[in-house]
């Protein structure tokens, strides 16, 4: 049940006009709120308010003051009670509004421990940092023939976002500006400039060069984790420099390489539930490709398969190139 403005108004009027004795203080808040909400049948719902007991305690403490002074004093004393009631109502309203995006369990194996081990060991043995070359080269190399498959199926950091952080992320919409070409180009140039300058001074010293790689991975991981708790688990992946480069080289039109796969949505899809978009880690919209022979060709699709697994009608599939007819 909800509280109408009229109910709140009646409660306010009753609080500001009532003359009471200290003996009636304990029941006054209950009676006032019940009368104010009677016509909207909200008294029972209002009784569950967390702030109700706080308001009653406040009223008991101020009962003597309210009884002895005029309406102006009563108004000053009662206003915090009304504000508390309205605030709690707004909090409950906001909590009742479901977010569009939601958590969906990740299939396959957990291998985010590779990232944790890399960060832990690399801190004491900097030369280990050079292993980051694998996660810098592989995404782009795979993208040439398979799109951003690496990001959704083999990236240790992405695996951590999906398996660990996604359970606790608020799943808010990823800011639109981080997906723009200009911002992503800036991130590519910025990261590679910082990386290049540091490598210039570290060149020739294996430990120093490894530390440069480790620093880049550690700092961007902290940024990614922070964004996961503010927006969505894969917020960083939306403008990750290596992910951006991968999206630029991803095949976008036929003829596709043999290893290329894409999400296919049957033409019978009515686009009512939009479950595929709700569970998509990248917050893109696979349903837009319904009935398309080529499938969903968004460059940021990471081929994770969550959209396929979540489809209630099971009319989505990830098809290899030999089943794609352009």
Notable traits:
two-stranded antiparallel ribbon, single chain, mainly alpha, 326 residues
SSE succession: HHHHHHHHHHHHEHHE
Strand content: under 5%
Please give the share of residues in helix: 40-55%
Mean pLDDT: 80
Measured distance between first and last alpha carbons = 53 Å
Category from helices, strands and their pairing: mainly alpha
Largest sheet geometry: 2 strands, antiparallel
Instruction: Give the neighbour order of strands across the main sheet.
Output: 1-2
Pick out the low-confidence regions: 18-26, 32-51
Quickly count the helices.
14
Task: Tell the overall outline.
Answer: globular
How much is the radius of gyration in Å? Answer: 29 Å
Please provide the count of β strands: 2
